[in-house]
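Entry for iron/sulfur cluster complex. Fields follow.
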Amino acid sequence: MKEIVILSGKGGTGKTTIVGSFAALAQSKVLADCDVDAADLHLLLSPSERQKSEFWSGQVAYIDRDRCTECGLCQELCRFDAIKDFMVDPVSCEGCGFCSHVCPVEAITMKENMSGYWFISDTKYGPLVHARLGIAQENSGKLVAAVRQQAKQIAESEGEDLIISDGPPGIGCPVISSLSGASLALLVTEPTLSGMHDLERVLGVCRHFGVPVLVCINKCDLNEGNTQQIESQCLSQGVEIAGRVPFDNIVSQSIVQGIPVVEYSNGTVTQEIERMWHTISARLRNSSKE
Ligand code: SF4
Ligand code: SF4
């Protein structure tokens, strides 16, 4: 089984547009939205929910008011100021457990925290695993791991040989969680100074984890000088540019309609994305033979 993860150094580079189009172009696959802090792939794929599961992660303190003598020690000592009026604010509580050790009457216990949901849904393009992290909840790296694990199980049980993952932005823990063990990463960037900087950082992460990389320059015609600079930057590191997608308002129109652009138009953007998908498919096929 192969897994391609689509990443960008930051949000807003058009990553989900590319993933939505791959969903429409790829034959036998499972889709995974690993951008759990701002999941939006479902907006393009109109999923119908098959299964919803709770995601439990981390701990929060809980005060038993019947036992508490209101001595105030826990409030005084909690360095995150998470206890007020002898009640724990679950959003501020970091789950360190210190208060439960200092309470003289053992009124504080640590409880598992329900920090979000993950879903298995059906789309016209195949199964989609996605998730929603609760407000102000952390541990998105763990939730990403859970989404990938589910996608893998579905692919195995349904006989699909490819997972296409929409990865999180940035280079933090969720990105590492989405990347480790993937067959290939496609890095979507745009020809801006910040895009070039972010690309360099995410390339470093991929190199560190030994994941082969291809690059897509989105809106490549908005600054041809910067596009050339990205091309030289990639060439010098032996990284292939798999696609150069021009700017076109048709992309925004397709998003508003909730349709992957490759199904919405047969213009230049679609042709470029199709060409890029052929390059990626060939790379994935060749990597199976290695
Ligand atoms: S330390 Fe224990 S007894 Fe004291 S205020 Fe906190 S919960 Fe109540
Ligand atoms: S577990 Fe840690 S952060 Fe949470 S209330 Fe207790 S001392 Fe504060």
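NOTE: The chain has eleven helices and eleven strands.
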